[in-house]
Write a structure and sequence with these properties.
Largest sheet of chain A: 8 strands, mixed
Order of helices and strands of chain A: HHEHEHEEHHHHEHHHHEHEHHEH
Strand order of the largest sheet of chain B: 1-6-7-8
Number of strands of chain A: 8
CATH architecture of the largest domain in chain B: 3-Layer(aba) Sandwich
Oligomer: heterodimer
Helix content of chain B: 40-55%
Strand content of chain B: 5-15%
Largest interface: A-B, 95 and 92 residues
Helix content of chain A: 40-55%
Order of helices and strands of chain B: EHEHEEHHHHEHHEHEHHHEH
Shape of chain B: elongated
Radius of gyration of chain B: 25 Å
Radius of gyration of chain A: 29 Å
Number of helices of chain A: 16
Shape of chain A: elongated
Strand content of chain A: 5-15%
Number of domains of chain B: 2
CATH architecture of the largest domain in chain A: 3-Layer(aba) Sandwich
CATH superfamily of the largest domain in chain A: P-loop containing nucleotide triphosphate hydrolases
CATH topology of the largest domain in chain B: Rossmann fold
Strand order of the largest sheet of chain A: 3-4-2-5-1-6-7-8
Chain lengths: ~425, ~325
């Protein structure tokens, strides 16, 4: 480890294989801010679990096209599909591979299915045709979060899998998906629903009007605000959904309890950048406050180096030295940098002389390039470690698995498998 | 409007843009809508309240950057206050849970409020009839949601077919679709962000929203070409070891420090080269999008206030060069 790494105690290592092999683990939730590799992590965990013998299903929310293709789920049909090619050359420790299923969430269809499944066909049709419902279900803020949690509950209820790995929506804030079930619940319990429904209920019974002076004042205001037609759409929607609200609330509560249950493990996913780790810290605190079981932090795209004995400063100085060419002290072979025991050159191989110096110019340039690249790499490593250390000092209790950065994106199962191996290793490889 | 896939640095770019536009005595407003307090973090300031306050002075002096974190709930109460003088009725609505409903559950209202507040700032004039802000820059939702976010007013105007919400939504849409607005998309030279950028541009075009620039962020310098790399790992390997040794990095003999450095350094360079190759491919994809681009360098020391000014200066330079 480089000097920067010494400054701080290393956090406990998150042992991914132990988590995946533990048959008590029934649900793994990958959460974190957008753009940190959450979906890829979820997919890699699912594949690794399957290749270690679990019957796993991965619920992805909004996977990149090629990642979805790699698992054969590029068609949006909202049901888990079996992934082919699982077990081909995986690190299963000799275990028979299990199975991997994968699906992509279609929030509108999930919402439609709830409506269809919980009310009579006639009423379902009225709801599905309601303009307010159509906008709501097509994915306005929050719907994705509700539906992801709803789908998780459904998958768990089917009991076809012994491990469910869930990706979470790229919410505007880390809190949205945890809050979704509660918000829905508090809204459904709230008086506002009754206000909205009041005119629909009261309308037919003129004699009840006197009870509702306050209410009609309120709906009058609402009507003024929203325009009468929208208010009517909302009211029709709420009235039609009335019988279903209880079910929503029950399921939202059940999902929330499921998330708190011992069989659930949360993994907070982040990249070693200040924003992502700040969100991660926020998440860790929030999970603790909600008594949700946190397994650890997955830190993606961490850089390492097999040449970390060479600091950025020395590499840059050496590069400059080579680029300036002539200043090398040929007699001693010393570059005139700072004195350092380790940097004593092997003069026997340095044959010196003018012709050699000319031929060296080209190689010097190449070598200087290598050194500059290394200096950049070391700067990145130092910065990432500072960022990680800041997180670790806030939350020393959180186990961490670091995943080495890959040069490109993942396109196939082999790529996911490679991520899985890095996840299990938990420490960044070198170069 | 500055959008981009998560992790591409859209908040940073939005802030740099606000600084860059605040030249020669101009005043810009930098707006945040996702409640993450990213702007405050970036400027090393305390969490922003729901209030416009000066957060920076532009590079070279003169201009000023104001910042505002829009809170949907407060924006709704403001809005009710402004249009309906609903002091106590507003409070009653809040007590009933109507405000929660409106800002979190009702389709799109939250986004209407956020864009509405930004448009109000765009149109606001002082007593002399001069615009209060020369530019309003919004750190907008990510690319995957940006079209829906900006287009929500159209959708709401369709839902609420008349009445004040309808009118408000239409007024906002008029500003957003006018040449006064530009939606900039921040990307990295990586496959997923570039793909999202391409999808985002397509969606914005289809919705008739004005596209600004693609801003390629965190562009790395290229140090070595592939021929050099091949040479370093092949026939010139021993010479590289000697060069390292000459540069003062230990012995070039087998087992010497310089010799042991060659393999890891070459491996790092190979990784770099494959990255460069991937970046080249992504650049080609971006060129095919037919949208002008700006490029911002990766800052080796990480992002801080000095870096932000550096990026602002870079943006200004590239805009002036056009």
């Amino acid at each position: 480890m480089s000097e920067a790494g010494m400054a701080m105690d290393e956090p406990a290592r998150l042992e991914v294989d132990r988590l995946l092999d533990d048959h008590e683990t029934r649900i793994i939730v990958c959460c974190g801010s957008g753009g940190v590799g959450k979906t890829t992590t979820a997919a890699a965990l699912g594949l690794r679990a399957a290749e270690r013998g679990r019957r796993a299903v991965v619920l992805t929310i909004d996977p990149a096209r090629r990642l979805a293709q790699s698992m054969g789920i590029d068609s949006l049909d909202n049901t888990p599909r079996k992934v082919t090619g699982v077990g081909a050359g995986g690190d299963g420790d000799g275990r028979a591979p299990g199975e991997l299923h994968a699906m992509m969430l279609d929030m509108k269809r999930t919402f439609d299915e709830i409506v269809e499944g919980h009310t009579d066909p006639e009423r379902a049709e009225a709801i599905l045709a309601n303009p307010f419902y159509q906008s709501l279900s097509a994915g306005f803020a929050g719907t994705q979060e509700y539906m992801a949690m709803e789908k998780l509950g459904q998958l768990r209820a089917r009991d076809d899998w012994d491990l469910i790995v869930v990706d979470t929506p790229p919410s505007r804030s880390a809190l949205d998906f945890l809050d979704a079930p509660k918000r829905l619940g508090s809204f459904l319990d709230g008086k506002f629903i009754r206000v909205l429904m009041a005119p629909a209920k009261v309308g037919g019974r003129a004699g009840m009007k006197f009870l509702n002076v306050g209410m009609s004042l309120m709906t009058g205001t609402l009507s003024k605000l929203m325009g009468a037609s929208l208010l009517k759409d909302v009211q029709t929607f709420v009235a039609a959904m009335d019988t279903m609200f209880g079910g929503f609330r029950t399921r939202a509560d059940a999902t929330f309890r499921l998330l708190q249950a011992p069989g659930t493990a949360f993994l907070v996913v982040a990249a070693p950048e200040p924003d992502a780790l700040r969100e991660a810290a926020y998440f860790v605190e929030r999970l603790a406050a909600e008594r949700m079981p946190l397994a650890g932090l997955v830190l993606n795209r961490v850089h390492g180096s097999d040449a970390d004995q060479l600091s950025a400063e020395r590499a840059l100085a050496a590069a400059e030295n080579l680029e300036e060419g002539g200043i090398v002290d040929q007699e001693s072979g010393k570059a005139g940098l700072r004195d350092d025991d380790r940097s004593t050159p092997d003069t026997g191989l340095d044959d010196g002389g003018d012709t050699a110096a000319e031929a060296d110019a080209d190689v010097d340039e190449i070598t200087a390039g290598l050194l500059r690249l290394h200096a950049e790499r070391m700067q990145v490593i130092a910065r990432e470690q500072r960022t990680r250390d800041r997180f670790t000092s806030l939350h020393p209790e959180v186990a961490v698995a670091e995943v080495a950065a890959l040069p490109g994106d993942v396109h196939d199962l082999a790529g996911l498998r490679a991520i899985g191996e890095r996840l299990a290793a938990g420490v960044p490889a070198g170069a | 409007m500055v959008s981009g896939k998560g992790g591409t640095g859209k908040t940073t770019v939005a802030a740099a843009l606000a600084l860059a536009l605040a030249r020669e005595g101009r005043r810009t407003l930098l707006v945040e809508v996702e409640g993450r307090q990213g702007i405050a973090q970036l400027f090393g300031a305390e969490a922003l309240p729901y209030e416009e306050r000066k957060i920076a002075v532009a590079p070279g002096g003169g201009g000023e950057v104001y910042a505002l974190a829009i809170d949907a709930e407060r924006a709704l109460l403001d809005y009710l206050q402004m249009f309906y003088k609903l002091g106590s009725a507003g409070r009653a609505l809040k007590k009933l849970g109507a405000i929660d409903f409106a800002t979190t559950i009702a389709p799109g209202l939250r986004d209407v409020l956020l864009t509405g507040k930004a448009c109000e700032a765009v149109r606001r004039k002082d007593k002399a009839g001069k615009f209060v802000y020369d530019h309003v820059i919004m750190d907008a939702p990510p690319t995957g949601r940006i079209t829906r976010f900006l287009n929500v007013n159209d959708e709401v105007a369709g839902l609420a077919r008349f009445g004040p919400i309808h009118n408000q939504a239409q007024a906002v849409m008029k500003v957003l679709k006018s040449p006064e607005t530009a939606v900039h998309l921040v990307t990295l030279l990586e496959e997923m962000p570039v793909q999202e950028t391409a999808d985002g541009i397509e969606e914005l075009r289809a919705a008739g929203l004005p596209i600004g620039r693609v801003i390629v962020n965190m562009v790395r310098p290229h140090h070595l070409d592939e021929d050099a790399l091949r040479a370093a790992s092949g026939e010139r390997r021993a010479d590289v070891a000697k060069a390292l040794s000459r540069a003062g990095l230990g012995g070039a003999r087998r087992g010497g420090l310089a010799e042991r450095l060659v393999d890891p350094l070459v491996a790092q360079a190979a990784e770099h080269a494959s990255r460069v190759e991937l970046e080249r491919g992504q650049r080609t994809v971006l060129e095919g999008l037919d949208t002008a681009t700006y490029e911002l360098p990766l800052l080796g020391a990480g992002m801080d206030l000095a870096g932000l000014y550096e990026l602002a200066t870079e943006l200004r330079k590239q805009a002036d060069d056009e």
